[in-house]
Design goal:
Layout (H helix, E strand, L loop, with lengths): L3 H8 L4 H4 L6 E3 L1 H4 L2 H15 L4 H27 L1 E3 L7 E4 L15 E4 L3 E3 L2 H26 L3 H22 L3 H17 L12 E5 L2 E4 L2 H5 L8 E4 L24 H13 L1
Antiparallel strand pairs: 1-3, 2-5, 3-4, 6-7, 6-8
Length: about 270
């Protein structure tokens, strides 16, 4: 593992299970990940963990979790340390944390991780290229998941775009440089969109700032000018839904796009005041 991951994990220990396989984890290729049996097991595992009967909802929830695990550590590194891991999954190590061959264990086959092994220096070009690499490598996974779970491709690509954008914006907030997070997010999603299959429209990310208890659209001119605003917390206005609210044990998440917008803003402001 690249030495910079030691620094990343010291600051963000929550990334450990997404970056580092455990003793029982199963390393796999991207082709393995796109095998129907692997995807079917992941959808079944989501149903087991969250009590969701509809495979469409279970499959989308698994994909939301998978995207988060695959990209969040790497994107945080881009924002925090100006190192850009290659997000083409074929260039690193993909692993199942609880392998599919342990399918007697409830939830086995759900959690995946990715250890990048190829890096570049941060720039607009390398950020876009990382988004393109992620898009190309997960395209077969999206295709199989769409077929297995009966989900249209569009919402799955929206989940991928939101996952990249949210990881970058959250890292920018934590680094006290929210507009850097927005710049990285925009570049990653632009790259993702450029490499999706023909006919797929990836929604452009939208951002909002919370300042003094007020929610306003992010000043994209200030983002482009590389300004560093004071006391700003930036959020992504998600286009996708994780579907966790379909679980009988869960409600809608904080940034859920299916909420009333005013209620979502109230919750986001309240969360910052805690």
């Amino acid at each position: 593992m690249d030495p910079v991951f030691g620094q990343l994990l010291a600051e963000y220990p929550r990334f450990l299970t997404a970056l580092e396989p455990a003793e029982h984890s199963r390393t796999m290729t991207v082709t393995d990940l796109a095998e129907p049996a692997v995807i079917e097991r992941a959808v079944a595992a989501a149903a087991e963990i969250f009590g969701i009967d509809d495979p469409r909802h279970a499959g989308q929830l698994w994909w939301f979790s998978a995207v988060n695990s695959l990209v969040s550590p790497a994107v945080t590194m881009m924002v925090e340390y100006d190192r850009v891991p290659d997000l083409d999954l074929a260039t690193g190590r993909v692993f199942l944390r609880d392998p599919v061959d342990r399918c007697d264990d409830p939830g086995a086959g759900y959690w995946i991780g990715f250890t990048p092994e190829v890096f570049s220096t941060g720039s607009e070009e390398t950020h876009r290229r990382a988004g393109e690499g992620f898009s190309r490598s997960v395209g077969p996974v999206v295709s199989v998941l769409s077929r297995v779970a009966g989900i249209k491709p569009a919402p799955l690509w929206a989940v991928a775009a939101d996952g990249l954008a949210q990881a970058a914006v959250e890292a920018g907030n934590e680094a006290f440089d929210p507009y850097l997070g927005v710049r990285v997010a925009s570049r990653l999603v632009s790259g993702l969109a450029a490499a999706t299959p023909a006919g797929v429209v990836v929604p452009a990310p939208r951002f909002f700032d919370i300042v003094d208890g007020t929610v306003t659209p992010t000043d994209m001119d200030a983002v482009s000018a590389e300004e560093e605003p004071d006391e700003v917390h930036t959020v992504v206005k998600r286009a996708s839904c994780c579907m966790v609210y379909r679980s009988p044990s869960s409600g809608k998440c904080l940034s859920c796009p299916r909420q009333d917008p005013a209620e979502r803003e109230r919750k986001l402001i309240a969360a910052l005041d805690q």
